[in-house]
Amino acid sequence: MRIILFPLLFLISTRVFPCSCYNERFNSIADKVAKYEFVAFVKFKKVLDTLYTHEQIKIKGKDTALKFANAVVMEIEVLEKFKGPERINRILIWGVNSSCEMRTMPEEKWIIFANRTPSGDFQTGYCNYNKLYSNSKGERDWVYKKEILLLDSLEILYGKKTKSIETEIKYSNGKTEVRQNYKKELLWGKQEIFYSNGNKYAVYNYKKGKLHGQFQTYYAKGGLYTQGYFKKGILRKQTVWYDDSVYSKSRLTRSSEIIYKPDGRSYSSYIWNSTGIKESESFFNNQDNSYLHIVYNENGKPYYMIIENYKKKERIYKEWNTKGLLIKETHSINGNTVYQFSEK
């Protein structure tokens, strides 16, 4: 049965437009929740219906009738409701076949923020504050943990967060997702995380509930993805490696590296291509608010360099040819050029 619930305005095809969302700033999670009528932690089950846009376009000079799917009605299972009515088992998702598509899949778990349509049903889309919590295999993002922390924040806001100490968390297939240790009710020592197939996902170290010490993360096929270390919860160094299953099985090749100084803001960063040749390096000094950026040619010689002092509003730009000879240089203060050289 076809379900037509929504204003004609939404049935205009968006497939040719880039997705652009108004990113409203919120002071707290409570402010985000206040904007929506339904907020819940859900599992997507299956597509119940599809809504189409019908268009007449010319193909090789002939009028042709086409139809495009631009919304789906999804069956959902509410795992934890924070705001809205108790019994919700479906939701409409806009943006199918467009740059604004949420790309939901059955068995994925999402944190959903939705509002009512004029007919009383609920709708959501890419530009809402929706977050993918876990994929269809049950795997979560343990690197940035934004969705894990968001769910925690919602549970705390609605008084649903219970203090639990879990030394081992398992997937629905029985394999271990997380193995960790506690001391004085705080994460302490090694934390091991695994993909649903049993391969290692990451290894972190904690002290007094904060990340502290060496860490490694891995690609799904087993290759090293990142490594570095934290100190008292603050990232001090991180190196990213190319996926050796794609680029090279004989050696590890760095992709990028960033090193923070003790102030936590000054840093040095480096980028390499897949063959190991350095492409660029950057340095930021928080004390004098200065920045240096150098980009290299494939032969290892500098291509161009930018030096900026944001406090003094000074900028220097230099450019070289592949032989290493300076061909262009510009100095400016407050946006005004005070010196300029260009090879003729």
Q: Could you characterize what this model shows?
A:
- This protein has a domain at 8-134: OB fold (Dihydrolipoamide Acetyltransferase, E2P) (Beta Barrel), CATH 2.40.50.120.
- The longest helix is centred in the middle third of the chain and has 12 residues, at 146-157.
- With 344 residues, it is mainly beta.
- The model is unreliable at 1-16 (pLDDT under 50).
- The protein is built from two helices and 24 strands.
- The strands form three sheets. It has a 16-stranded antiparallel beta sheet that branches. It has a five-stranded mixed barrel with strand order 1-2-3-5-4.
- It is globular, with a radius of gyration of 26 Å.
Give a short overview.
With 344 residues, the protein is mostly beta strands. It contains two helices and 24 strands.
Q: What is the beta-strand fraction? A: over 45%
Number of helices: 2
Structural class determined from secondary elements: mainly beta
Rounded average pLDDT: 87
Distance, first to last CA: 72 Å
Write the H/E string, N to C.
HEEEEEEHEEEEEEEEEEEEEEEEEE
Please identify, by name, the CATH architecture of the domain at 8-134.
Answer: Beta Barrel
Q: Outline, from the CA principal axes?
A: globular
**Largest sheet at a glance?**
16 strands, antiparallel
What are the segments in which pLDDT stays under 50 over at least 5 consecutive residues? 1-16
CATH topology of the domain at 8-134: OB fold (Dihydrolipoamide Acetyltransferase, E2P)
Helix percent band: under 10%
Rg value: 26 Å
Which CATH first-tier class of the domain at 8-134 would you pick? Mainly Beta
Number of strands: 24
